[in-house]
Amino acid sequence: xxxxxxxxxxxxxxxxxxxxxxxxxxxxxxxxxxxxxxxxxxxxxxxxxxxxxxxxxxxxxxxxxxxxxxxxxxxxxxxxxxxxxxxxxxxxxxxxxxxxxxxxxxxxxxxxxxxxxxxxxxxxxxxxxxxxxxxxxxxxxxxxxxxxxxxxxxxxxxxxxxxxxxxxxxxxxxxxxxxxxxxxxxxxxxxxxxxxxxxxxxxxxxxxxxxxxxxxxxxxxxxxxxxxxxxxxxxxxxxxxxxxxxxxxxxxxxxxxxxxxxxxxxxxxxxxxxxxxxxxxxxxxxxxxxxxxxxxxxxxxxxxxxxxxxxxxxxxxxxxxxxxxxxxxxxxxxxxxxxxxxxxxxxxxxxxxxxxxxxxxxxxxxxxxxxxxxxxxxxxxxxxxxxxxxxxxxxxxxxxxxxxxxxxxxxxxxxxxxxxxxxxxxxxxxxxxxxxxxxxxxxxxxxxxxxxxxxxxxxxxxxxxxxxxxxxxxxx
Length: 476
Hints:
The protein is of the alpha/beta class.
């Protein structure tokens, strides 16, 4: 009878595991479907994305880790804050399918789906299958997951790499001491960290997790130590070479500390701190964070895992880092996603502690509350930053035939659609950071429409064509 009971128990476990994966895949397919909606027009191609698209195109077509500012001159990527883990997959897609927006954003759609899968699986490892599906639902219904993820930017790729790293951390925490687990934990953490400066906080977070493991009895072997050190050296070397062409100088480091060149960082931090408590989006984040802290307290701080501590550290450092920025909410997007991974702990802890029977009631209320909030925001603005003017600009560039040399003024996304390298480019990134030169040698200029007040063109140019949010100027 004991053998039969064990067999039945094993069958139930396999059946539940299969149900979890079926549910997770279904949710991911829903995310794929929603992410593919208006993939090219929402969000419309924009300034930062245009820079990253250019880099990926240059890597794919010329093996060039640089931005071109004239036919004979390029500038390095010291001030381009998206790293090679984001650029290379896009460049690979461009190499195969050509330099189209679909080739680039199709790659980002894959990152979106992987994030839902790995986010759900990580929560499953932490709190169980039901919690894992809840996290997957939260991610698949969260508007910014698509608004930030469909752009060629570093947020979602970095998050996916970080989630994979944390999955390996849970494996180590549960007793695995295989050197390969340490290797994959570190390599994915390093790749996440160099995807975008937002993820550099993962370094101290992972170091803190290792300290916790050491305090709880973990003693690294030579092989595990080597498996940790080797990826750090390798990834850092590749990053330094592709991003900086060597070790970054003091000006570059200052840019990473203050990327917007803010003169009064203290005043900006005070303003952002006030905004955290007076606007709905940051209040939603703080509410999730409060529920997580309550759940950890109810469960007991001593039971907090190293993985949970690592994610909590990422959230805390991300929020602090956000305060010193221009205040755009995508700068605490990483903290939002980490909260969605941790949030089901509130559901599991409170239902176990206060509801011995009919646990489905509080669980259903919890899911309904957050899922309805996500869906309300998602359906209220299903196509954020929608725009098709880039199609007019692309069509004009495709139809341009030997009508004179061209310069692109603060429209890096347009450069991506231009075939060839016979162009000039001027980028005014911040008041203190400008790439390329403004000159009057070009016969044709393409600029934003309307032209920003901060950009003054030479006097002998006049508008010849308007292409929605783009303008074409010709020399008199």
